Amino acid sequence: MKKSQVLLFCVLLIPVMALAQESNSQPATDDSQQQAKADQAKSGKSQAAPEEVVEEQSGEQVRSAQLVGSAVVNASDEEIGTIDGLLLSKQGQVEGIIVGVGGFLGIGEKHVALDWGAVEITSAEGEANYQVRTTLDRAALEKAPEFKTEEKQQAEQRRKEQLEKQKQQVGQSPEQANQ
Q1: Residue 84: partners with Cβ closer than 8 Å, 6 or more residues away
Q2: What is the value of pTM for the model shown?
Q3: Both ends of the chain: CA-CA distance in Å?
Q4: CB distance 68 to 84 below 8 Å
Q5: What are phi and psi of 7, to 5 degrees?
Q6: pLDDT tens-place string over residues 83-114
Q7: Is beta strand 120-122 parallel, antiparallel or unpaired with respect to 94-101?
Q8: Is the Zinc-finger keyword given for this protein (predicted)?
Q9: Superfamily of domain 64-148, CATH level 4
Q10: SS3 letters for 76-88?
């Protein structure tokens, strides 16, 4: 019994000794390395980060999460909708915003897309909340055509094709329709 306890103790002690040896073998940093780290902290840029990495948000940038859910207001500061999404090109450029208009708690709401160049992003000084201003009023947005996503357009096209196929089959005999 004592031999097994001693063996177990030794087995458990080996990893602890290995860790202790590793932590002692790390070289101490010199003053130049400490100075480089201090300079890096001041600039906010990492020397190891590749060019493609954006490390921090500038004052001229707005995150999509800050816009989605924000109010859309008209020239009279009347809230006429909310931003439900952004429309991006495949090159990554913002081309428009998707605005939820009408309805109550999302029921009966329709989506209208506004061109990015036709809106203005505003926020109060020091505020994290943004709003988007447009020259359109609520009535104009409610009358505007509903925004159709690519998926919705494809679904409508398939539905039209199915209806056309059914119309053609109605005029045929059952044997012809099964072919």
Answers
A1: 68, 98, 99, 100, 111
A2: 0.60
A3: 83
A4: yes
A5: -65, -45
A6: 999 999 999 999 999 999 887 766 778 999 99
A7: unpaired
A8: no
A9: PRC-barrel domain (2.30.30.240)
A10: CCCEEEEEEEEEE
